[in-house]
Specification:
Largest sheet: 7 strands, mixed
Shape: globular
Helix content: 40-55%
Distance between the termini: 16 Å
Number of strands: 14
CATH topology of the largest domain: Aspartate Aminotransferase, domain 2
CATH architecture of the largest domain: 3-Layer(aba) Sandwich
Strand order of the largest sheet: 1-9-8-5-4-2-3
CATH class of the largest domain: Alpha Beta
Number of helices: 12
Length: 376
């Protein structure tokens, strides 16, 4: 006789509030009582603490992770008609940011094991395109997908060789590490999202940029606030992308728990790997050179949709990150790339399935998920 189904959510922010809700409400009350809601002391405090967490590199709070990439590109001098290399298996916001900066995404395939950008494909593409595009080749945006850092050493070597800026898309990798260095501190800029479901998430939209140089941080602070140097004096053309005081206060509280929560994610990932024995399932890998943040636990299965449907019937909520690669999205049909152009990314899109992953999952829920995956 089959066991009665549990209801296992993909994520649950209500459980998070059970841990730190009192501190968050106190932080919100403090902002409300201050009467200051835009670019005040809470943003400055969070920027300082986020910087300290990343070894002291300058940090700038912005309105979203998408705008973090856009502003980093603008700060790197990238604009209309320039080309930016990235991957086709990322969330659309990565390339939305490239488009918003006026640039054109130039896609390369991924490493099938790690889901991250393939350095050899990057070198091949740049060698092929450099004679045609010349100085219009401007940047690489490696995506630390699902919390796994891209292989940054060869990427940085290639970037130096071709004189390209590197903007790390660390939206899913807060707290991850590559060879002892925090994600977002390796390239010229690191872009973070604080969307509520992220490892470090606020309760609305928010983002941040890490920079290598103080002057870049000051430039981004102008760009995020209409290009102002002081009120009503605009030195450059900017946008409105400001992390607000309420979200900054929430993030300051939650930053103190980021390492603890990431460690719990690693424990959950270890349990999944140990208990999932379905021969058709491929568990994700974690490189020996990295500390995986496990934003998502993404398995592969040749009949992914059937697996997802059966798991849903048994109370296990899953999601697909991401079902349609960038070059096959209607919004990017002008790239002129058809199915088969990026075989590793397309194969992943057809097979990936994200299992429940958040720090407050219980042992019973994790074991239940594993049993259901094994039985299908």
């Amino acid at each position: 006789m089959s066991e009665p189904p549990l209801k296992v959510p993909f994520g649950c922010l209500r459980r998070e509030l059970e841990e730190c809700g009192d501190e968050i409400r106190a932080a919100i009350d403090q902002v409300l009582e201050s009467g200051w809601f835009i670019l005040g002391r809470e943003v400055e405090r969070f920027e300082a603490e986020f910087s300290a967490y990343h070894g002291g590199v300058p940090a700038v709070g912005v309105g979203s992770g998408t705008e973090a990439i856009q502003l980093a590109l603008l700060a790197a001098g990238i604009g209309y008609g320039d080309y930016v290399v990235t991957v086709p298996n990322t969330a659309v916001p990565t390339v939305s940011a490239i488009s918003a900066a006026g640039a054109i995404p130039l896609l390369v395939d991924i490493d099938a094991a790690s889901f991250t950008i393939d350095p050899s494909s990057v070198r091949e593409l740049l060698t092929e395109q450099k004679p045609r595009l010349g100085e219009k080749l401007k940047a690489i945006v490696p995506v630390h997908l699902y919390g796994q850092c891209a292989d940054m050493d060869p990427i940085m070597e290639i970037a130096r060789e071709f004189e390209l800026a590197v903007i790390e898309d660390a939206a899913q990798a807060a707290g991850a590490e590559y060879k002892g260095r925090k994600a977002g501190t390796i390239g010229d800029f690191g872009a973070f999202s604080f969307y509520p479901s992220k490892n470090l998430g606020c309760y609305g939209d928010g983002g941040a940029i890490l920079t290598r140089r103080d002057e870049d941080a000051q430039h981004i602070k102008m760009l995020r606030n209409y290009g102002q140097t002081r009120r009503y004096y605009h030195e450059v053309k900017g946008i409105n992308s400001r992390l607000d005081e309420l979200q900054a206060a929430i993030l300051t509280v939650k930053l103190q728990r980021l390492d603890l929560w990431n460690e719990r994610r690693r424990q959950i990932a270890d349990t999944y790997r140990a208990l999932i024995r379905n021969p058709l399932v491929r568990n994700p890998m974690a490189s020996d050179d990295t500390v995986h943040a496990w934003h998502l636990y993404v398995i592969r299965h040749p009949e992914r949709d059937r697996l997802a449907a059966v798991l849903a019937e048994r109370g296990v909520q899953t999601l697909i990150h991401y079902p349609v690669p960038i070059h096959l999205q209607g919004a990017y049909r002008e790239l002129g790339q058809k199915e088969g152009t990026y075989p590793a990314a397309e194969a992943a899109a057809a097979e990936v399935l994200s299992l429940p992953m958040f720090p407050q999952l219980t042992a019973d829920e994790i074991e239940y998920v594993c049993r259901q995956v094994n039985e299908v």
